[in-house]
Amino acid sequence: MKVLVVGGGGREHALAWKISQSPRVEQVFVAPGNAGTARDATNVPIAATDKPALIAFAQKESIDLVIVGPEAPLVDGMVDEMEEAGLRVFGPSKAAAELEGSKVFCKNLLYTANIPTASYRTFRSGEEASRYIWDRYGDPSEPVPVVVKADGLAAGKGVIVCSTRQEALDAIDRIASQREFGDAGKELIIEERLIGQEASVLAITDGETIVTLPAAQDHKPAYDGDTGPNTGGMGAYCPTPIIDEELMSKVESDVLVPIVHAMKRARRPFKGVLYAGLMLTAAGPKVLEFNVRFGDPECQPLLMRLKTDLVDVIEAAVDGRLGELAPLEWDDRPSICVVMASEGYPGDYEKGRPIKGLDAADAIEDVKVFHAGTKLVDGEVTNDGGRVLGVTAMGDTIAKAKLQAYRGVKEIRWQGAWCRKDISDKARLQ
């Protein structure tokens, strides 16, 4: 069969790499792809948001299965239009994808479905939100433990954690007035700041059956020790000991099952990947956000460990047959992904800097370098984004997997390259 993966990041490279291992797959296309997917699949120079061109390509090539990776085309209704064109496609509908596309919709649904989450208020203007902060926190010396969020998609950056009144007012100004995140800031949320460890639980569902994947732990802040601004994710490891079997059962019963039922009641049945970003508080797990696709970088260590044919799982979800699927098989060894980023990320950065050492890193045992923001220029791999590579490794223990991943990192160099040095260290604290 022929498979088309839509997208060009680290998640899509991992998907293409894993799908290409299926004995049932003859050819994997990635649109638009990157320098890494050019090695493991066939790149197609079509933007991930160009629905007409992607549909035309899929029909011309007789594509048997389309997998939409990023959130933007999902929220824009790509699955609906592809299905109308007669294509088999994996991912949620436009109506279902609003679970990620609008934080206001998500929070309201969590509230009505009685799913544990932070208390919150929604606002349609910066003035209204600022007035709330002034009224609620009158004493300037009083701590202001809130999180200010842009309603729409902001590439993982539209969430600002605050500790003081001025920080909260500045966050509101950036989102609602300066429109730092564009139209994502048309509405905003102010919610209580939860205390605890974050974890990610992903599940694949066909709207009826839920297949939960091993829990992972992402590292959102830019710098070591969880300091600095939020990013799209600086690394992840899987499985995380912070979620044991008992806690996973609670997440399934209190979060995943209720949200699938709530979406069905809202006449937005959900098919695809359901990603719950959780804060593990003293009062139990609470939902920070829902995403409607594989997380990036969580996807990379997850797929490194998956032994079951991913195509079988995805087709079962598309066809509504997940309940017939045998339990997924996993490599017992943990896996770690370390993101290497461009100088200046998550702010401004320069592109086009040549990257060296990729082959040496890939040659290390149990290491795979997944490309995210890379581009081929005259046959040379260059950086083309903020998060550039996801150096992913497995090991008998989390410590050994970390050692292998950073061995891979040490082989790779380009001007301004950097990464966090503490990915997976949280596991030692569990």
Describe this structure in words.
It is a single chain. This protein has 430 residues and is an alpha+beta fold. The chain folds into 4 domains: 2-95, Rossmann fold (3-Layer(aba) Sandwich), CATH 3.40.50; 125-186, 2-Layer Sandwich (Dna Ligase, domain 1), CATH 3.30.1490; 197-324, ATP-grasp fold, B domain (D-amino Acid Aminotransferase, Chain A, domain 1), CATH 3.30.470; 335-429, Glycinamide Ribonucleotide Synthetase, Chain A, domain 4. It has helices at residues 10-19, 37-40, 51-60, 71-75, 78-84, 94-101, 103-112, 126-136, 165-177, 245-265, 299-305, 310-318, 358-362, 398-411; strands spanning 2-7, 27-32, 42-43, 65-68, 89-90, 120-123, 146-150, 159-162, 188-192, 197-205, 210-212, 217-218, 221-223, 227-230, 235-238, 272-281, 284-291, 335-341, 367-371, 374-377, 380-383, 387-394. A 5-stranded parallel β-sheet has the order 3-2-1-4-5, sandwiched between helices. A hairpin with an 8-residue loop joins β7 (146-150) and β8 (159-162). The longest helix has 21 residues, at 245-265. The radius of gyration is 21 Å and the shape is globular. Its cofactor is Mn(2+); Mg(2+). It catalyses: 5-phospho-beta-D-ribosylamine + glycine + ATP = N(1)-(5-phospho-beta-D-ribosyl)glycinamide + ADP + phosphate + H(+).
List the helices and strands and how they pair.
Blueprint: E1 2-7, H1 10-19, E2 27-32, H2 37-40, E3 42-43, H3 51-60, E4 65-68, H4 71-75, H5 78-84, E5 89-90, H6 94-101, H7 103-112, E6 120-123, H8 126-136, E7 146-150, E8 159-162, H9 165-177, E9 188-192, E10 197-205, E11 210-212, E12 217-218, E13 221-223, E14 227-230, E15 235-238, H10 245-265, E16 272-281, E17 284-291, H11 299-305, H12 310-318, E18 335-341, H13 358-362, E19 367-371, E20 374-377, E21 380-383, E22 387-394, H14 398-411
Parallel strand pairs: 1-2, 1-4, 2-3, 4-5
Antiparallel strand pairs: 6-9, 7-8, 7-9, 10-11, 10-16, 12-15, 13-14, 15-18, 16-17, 18-22, 19-22, 20-21
